Amino acid sequence: MRMSAKAEYAVRAMVQLATVEDGTLVKTEDLANAQSIPAQFLVDILSDLRTDRLVRSHRGRDGGYELARPAADISLADVLRCIDGPLASVRDIGLGDLPYSGPTAALTDVWRALRASMRSVLEQTSLADVASGALPEHVGALADDYRRQQQARGQ
């Protein structure tokens, strides 16, 4: 999976919004400064998030942004799909329509397994989980496995 800078910034901004008290509006500049995101880039990101109804904006001197629903009800997958589209795609072709045959036919199942794996992490991890540092158990276990593998490789 390759995550664009825009998607990574969007996730960071959303997690930052998840840390503020309900009803508190956060100005774009404050959000940009808190996460070191270029302000103009963040304006475009927040516009996309607003269009997908993940954030609400309020105009005026006291305006700003807030999550459109509780942080526990917004998954990382929701944010990533809003910004970059489908979580895992192969040349923007549906998995059932891939032109694999012969020895490559099993690749379709490999891509299905990859998509299922990504979904199990991204759809089941909410903004609230990340903001609190209390990740779902299976996500923590996968991260621990990855760290062990990196240590075993001396990285």
Structure overview:
The chain is mainly α and 155 residues long. It has one domain: Winged helix-like DNA-binding domain superfamily/Winged helix DNA-binding domain (Arc Repressor Mutant, subunit A), CATH 1.10.10.10. The protein is 53% helix and 5% strand. It contains seven helices and two strands, in the order αααββαααα. The protein has a two-stranded antiparallel sheet. A hairpin with a 5-residue loop joins strand 1 and strand 2. The longest helix is centred in the C-terminal third of the chain and has 16 residues, at 107-122. The radius of gyration is 18 Å and the shape is globular.
Task: Produce a short descriptive summary.
GO terms for molecular function: DNA binding; DNA-binding transcription factor activity. It comes from Mycolicibacterium duvalii. With 155 residues, the protein is mainly alpha-helical.
